[in-house]
Specification:
Length: about 400
């Protein structure tokens, strides 16, 4: 039997793989702490649940328009006006099964084979794989060592006549940093002049700390929605803790939305209507839950930073948003895959290797869980790695003695 060479070259999602490994360990009764997963612990907003259940109980769950329920699109337009100060038309909006599908759909709809897409390291694991799935070439730009902020000059240097798009994700998964206004302004201005798409993945735009807020890329262009190269991606997964509902959207010029709609129509027909109604409920419901979530996560960020500060040899750039941080473990081990596996095997802590995000020697830690998970997780990592830490620890009800340092 033969398989597609391209499909076989696509890497397994490391976060989904780690979730599965953690689930299996938990099933075996091990006290696993998950610092890998990126999803808030809160319950979905009541308005989302009520909307979805009301729709389900009608029993009338059928195909709906490919580009999204008109009522959800209306709620997205309102959200866009309130949060981005831009009035867009329903023809500029397409709803997909998560922001992940929105991004894939955009890439599939703009790329020709061998077109290049600039991706800024550290990057979300799925970007390079999605570009490859669209027969494009991911071009990775790295920041100066020790920082996570890309430099405009480094981007300018890799642009060729094949450059079709750049992906911006600020606040950034996995580093948690927010790109400076000056940087985003320069990128937008440069790309608008060169005709390069800017895919602004704003999925974490409300999970920001200490009063900092990312300025939307749209603010730096004076072109209208039909003429700008800025495409905005957002969704309900992170802001409302609704990861399982799988609702995301893209806002783009109407011709691109038309093409994306045709593509999506051939693949998924439409997004499940009761889930769309749930997203509408979240967008139109009480917004104080977003602030509650933001405050909880900000507090978690402070806790994890305090724990990491006392970790000999580990350096960590302070996150300004998201629920991730990306500490540098090179003082212990360069090979982040081996380190992550070691920590899972010895300390039952799930982390994600920095290598997956283009940042070898680092581990991505999520602080979207409870304070107890964060403090205990870091204590276990310290125990496993730092010879200055006590060599005995309790994991669940098991007393563990470190005999490898
Ligand atoms: N973009 C980034 C940067 C993400 O971290 C994620 C989720 N991990 C997504 C997009 C996908 O979001 P969704 O769950 O809506 O598909």
């Amino acid at each position: 039997m033969t398989y597609s060479t391209l499909a076989m070259s696509i890497a397994e999602s490391p976060t989904l793989r780690l979730n599965e490994e953690a689930r299996l360990l938990r099933e075996r009764g091990e006290a696993v702490i998950h610092l890998g997963i990126g999803e808030p612990k809160n319950r979905a907003p009541m308005t989302a649940i009520l909307g979805a259940t009301a729709k389900l109980s009608t029993g009338d769950i059928k195909y709906v328009p490919t580009d999204g329920l008109p009522s959800l699109k209306k709620a997205i337009i309102r959200y866009t006006e309130e949060n981005y100060d831009r009035l867009v038309a329903p023809e500029n909006v397409i709803v997909s099964a998560g922001a992940k599908q929105s991004i894939f759909n955009i890439l599939y709809s703009i790329l020709n084979p061998q077109d290049e897409v600039i991706i800024l390291a550290p990057y979300w694991v799925s970007y390079p794989e999605m570009v490859k799935m669209c027969y494009g070439i991911p071009v990775i730009v790295r920041p100066e060592d020790g920082t996570f902020h890309p430099r405009f000059e480094d981007i300018e240097r890799v642009v060729t006549s094949s450059t079709k798009a750049i992906i911006l994700n600020s606040p950034n998964n996995p580093s948690g940093i927010i790109f400076s206004d000056e940087f985003v302004a320069k990128i937008v201005d440069f790309c608008e002049r060169k005709g390069i798409y800017i895919i602004s993945d704003d999925i974490y735009h409300k999970l920001v700390f200490d009063g900092k807020r990312p300025t939307p890329a749209w603010k730096f262009t004076n072109k209208d929605i039909e003429n700008t190269k800025v495409i905005v991606v957002n969704g309900v997964a992170k802001t409302y803790g609704m990861t399982g509902f799988r609702i995301g959207w893209a806002i783009a010029p109407r011709r691109l939305v038309e093409i994306m709609t045709n593509v999506q129509g051939q693949i998924t027909t439409c997004v499940a209507p009761f889930l769309q109604v749930a997203a509408e409920g979240a967008l139109l419901g009480l917004q104080s839950i977003v602030e509650q979530l933001r405050l909880t996560i900000q507090n978690n960020r402070d806790v994890i930073m305090n724990e990491l500060r006392t970790f000999t040899g580990v350096k960590c750039v302070k996150p300004e948003g998201t629920f991730y941080c990306l500490p540098d473990f090179r003082a212990y081990k360069m090979d982040s895959v081996a380190l992550s596996e070691f920590l899972l095997k010895r300390a039952y802590v799930v982390t994600v290797p920095g290598k997956e995000f283009g940042m070898e020697g680092h581990l991505r830690l999520s602080y979207s869980g409870s304070i107890k998970e964060i403090t205990e997780g870091i204590a276990r990592i310290k125990w496993a790695l730092d010879p200055n830490s006590p060599n005995e620890i309790y994991i669940g009800d098991k007393r563990m003695v470190r005999d490898w340092l």
